Amino acid sequence: MKHLLSAADLTRAEAVHVLDTAAEMAATQSREIKKLPTLRGRTVVNLFFEDSTRTRISFETAAKRLSADVINFSAKGSSVSKGESLKDTALTLQAMGADAVVVRHQASGAPHLLARAGWLDAAVVNAGDGTHQHPTQALLDAFTLRRHLAGDPALGATSGVGADLDGLHVAIVGDVLHSRVARSNVALLTTLGAHVTLVAPPTLVPVGVETWPCEVSYDLDATLADGKPDAVMMLRVQRERMSSAGGGFFPSPLEYSRAYGLDARRLAVLPEHTIVMHPGPMNRGLEISAEAADSPRAVIVEQVANGVAVRMAVLYLLLTGQHDPQSARVPTTTTTHRTEEAHA
Ligand code: CP
User: Fold this and answer.
1) What residues does carbamoyl phosphate bind to (predicted)?
2) So what's the pLDDT on residue 245?
3) Bridge partners, 71 (sequence order)
4) Ligand 1 site, residue 137, Cβ cutoff 6 A
5) What's the CA-to-centroid distance between 54 and ligand 1, angstroms?
6) CA pair distance 321, 315, nearest whole angstrom
7) Are 139 and 279 within one domain?
8) What's the CA gap between 320 and 152, in Å, rounded?
9) Which range of residues forms the domain containing residue 265?
10) How far is the CA of 280 from the centre of ligand 1 (A)?
C-alpha cells in the first residue's frame, strides 16, 4: 500500500494493524518527550484546498512528532488563485522533494488523480475529498470506538489492541448525502465487523444507498430506542454544500433539529455505555445540543486527540513500508537531546 485514498481499500487485517500501530503511537504521546526520530529527513506536505481545523493541525502535529519536515500549503494565498492547475502544483511539490502529500480538496477524486497521474513519487494521503472519502477520520473513529467498547467484558474500556469492532452497533445520524465521514465509516466499521445504521431524512440519503453494507432509517427515535446503539455518531449539516440554510433538504433548521438532533431527551433513552461522537466542526443547536456535546458520554475531544496518534501511524506505515501486518515493527524510542545531537 503506497497511498491511503479510501477506507474501503483497507482489509480487516490492515485496518487492525493501523489501529494497533496507532495504539503504540498514542502510548508515546503520554511521555514527557513526545517526539520520535522515525521520519527524520522526510518531508510531509499538507496540501489543503479546502478549509480545515482538526485534520490539518492533526497531520502537522503527527508529522512533527515523527521528526519529519512539514510544509503547509493552503490554496488561499498560493498561485492556485492565479489559475495554477493541480498538475503544476504537484510538479512543484515533486521538485521540492516531498515524500508524502496529505491532500484535502473540494473535488471528489482529486487525491486519486494526484496518486495515479504520475506527477509525484510521494505517498498520497486523502485528508478529505468532496463528498467522497476521509479515511483517517474513519480510522480515528474506529480507534476511539475500540478504546471504549471493544474487547471489554462490560463495554467499558480497554485499549482493545488486536481487536476489531465485531458485534458493535453504530448509528450514524444526519447529513449522509454530503458526508465523506459517513461513507468512510460505513466502509471501515463494517470491514471491522460493526453493524451500522444510517439515520437521515430521505432528502439527505444518497441515491444507491441500498447497495451500501448498512441499514437505513428515517426515524431517529426508533433507532435509539429499539436499536440500542453502542455509539451514536452525529454528522454535521453541511450547509456550505446546500444552496441556502436548508437548501430545500429540510423545511427549517428547527424542524431538522427536532427530528434529527441529539439532545438531552434523546440522550436519556440511550444505554448507559453508549458514547456520543462527532467528527467536528459541530453546529451546536442544530444536529447536536450543547447538553449532548458536553455530556460525559461525548468523546468528541478525545476523537481529536486520537487523530494525532492515528495520523502518526498512517504516516509511519506509508513512509517506512511497514504496512504489511505480518512484518511490521513499531519504533517507540523517543527522541532525546542525545539522539538529536547524534544526528546533528
Ligand atoms: N473532522 C474534520 O475533518 O474536521 P476539519 O474539517 O476541521 O479538518
Assistant:
1) 54-55, 104, 134, 137, 280-281
2) 56
3) 45
4) yes
5) 5
6) 10
7) yes
8) 32
9) 135-302
10) 6
